[in-house]
Design a protein that fits this description.
Blueprint lengths: L3 H15 L4 H9 L5 H8 L6 E3 L19 E8 L2 E8 L10 H17 L3 E8 L9 H5 L23 E10 L1 H8 L2 E5 L3 E3 L3 H8 L5 H5 L1 H7 L5 E3 L2 H14 L38 H8 L5 E4 L7 E8 L2 E8 L10 H16 L4 E7 L6 H5 L2 H13 L5 E10 H6 L9 E4 L4 E3 L3 H9 L4 H14 L3 H5 L5 E2 L5 H14 L18
Parallel strand pairs: 3-4, 4-5, 5-6, 5-7, 6-8, 11-12, 12-13, 13-14, 13-15, 14-16
Antiparallel strand pairs: 1-2, 2-3, 9-10, 10-11
Length: 516
Amino acid sequence: MAFDTLLEELKERKNKASRHGGPEKVKRQHDKGRLTARERIDCLLDPDTFVEFGMLACSDMPGMKDKTPADGLITGYGLVNGRQIGIIASDFTVLASSNARVYSKKAKKIRAQVVEKGFPLVWLGESGGGRLPDIQGAVGIASLSGEGGNSKSIFPQYSNIRTTPWIMAVMGQCNGVPMWQACLSDFVVQVKGSTLSVSGVRALQKAIAATYTDEDMGGWKVHAEISGITDQVAENEKDCFRIIKEFLDYMPSNNKELPPIRPVPEDSGREMEHILDILPEKRTRAYDMYKIIKTIVDGGKIFDLKPFFGKTIITCLARIDGNVVGFIANQPIVNGGAMGIDALEKMTGFMCFCDSFNIPLIFLHDTPGFITGKEAEHNKVGAKVTVALEALAQVTVPKISIIIRKSYGQAMFNMCGPTAGPDFIVAWPTGEIGFLEPEIAADVTYGALPEEKRKALTEKMIREGAPYPLAEEYYIDDIIDPGETRGYLTQILNMIQNSEGGGMGKHLLANWPTKF
């Protein structure tokens, strides 16, 4: 055939690109217990659904063409459980998947395309940061946006108005671009043994004489417990793919859709009649709010977000009667449910997330207030409280509040309490509402009185905090039997579903930062 030579050349070029950085580099990757970029893509996507773009791309630096297949970044589209997604996978076998101009063009294009087409984006990250000497000079760094001559061409790479879900998987050493992508993403999963940081220790040893390790600076415990960047931690790469698929199952493909409805497991709500067994009769005794949530939701199944960060607040996804909901719940077994700075950041980010993707919010109250004091004030607790309330004021998805037990002071408003914008609000008969915890209020007000009289006045304050006056003056819709909670929520969610728009939000919080 006349075109045999041309076709043979094309085949050889693509075969060469598919071999990553060569057998030695691939072996080195496998020896570390890690898959290659294309192996990772195959593990995540449905079989034979990957369509690659930019396979023949390479570095624009003289003499580097043969050393940079796909320029170290695999991009394209495929299906996850039948749903179309965009996918990026860092190829660490090619110059540690370092970032340069062609790499940047590829990443920029697919990120723009998924927004335009309404597809989720998954980035499987493992990258050593910026590529030297490619971006070292004046023109080198200025050209990193992937375009020349446009004074604003960098912005599309470092901005994300939430219209489609973005997922970042931290799967190995990740410096530079993967950090920016993690901070732009709606969901970050980090594999144990991986690291995520702005710069690697090797560069910092020269710059600031760093003596710590990459793990010290950006291991999973750092980002799951301290920075809050990581939403879930995976035991290994296989577990990472499972988590990504599970997260996607709760999500719409874009903000013009409602989340997917799933069949209700047969055993859902079976333990509702025993839900009060979880709540201690002694009002000062702690309990695990996770048990309350799991009793209410379909199949007792939740998808927790940031479980090791800001642990006085629970933020999780679940389903009720097949419908996706987001829970913001106080956690009494940690500091009595008093909200700290990390918890406030966590709930603010979660409200932005749920409002962006049409997920109704359910608030479960049991908090004595905020964690205050010298350290908290130095860390701007007042600003964090205010920012969280600012976000709450702009939430446009349905908001349902249930006062389980304590709801005191300003924290009552931050938890979407009476007059703080709930669309539906009820209390259990165990609810308590007031300006301060009665024991603290009594100490402030009656501290000089004899103990017996002080105790009697404290008990009077507790009685005055019962939810009935709120129901009588219609600050709340009702007081419900705790055993009816799942049924009540099912009715409300069905009502929302049957309403105009079906609970679709206006997405006012879509352009708030994903990290604070």
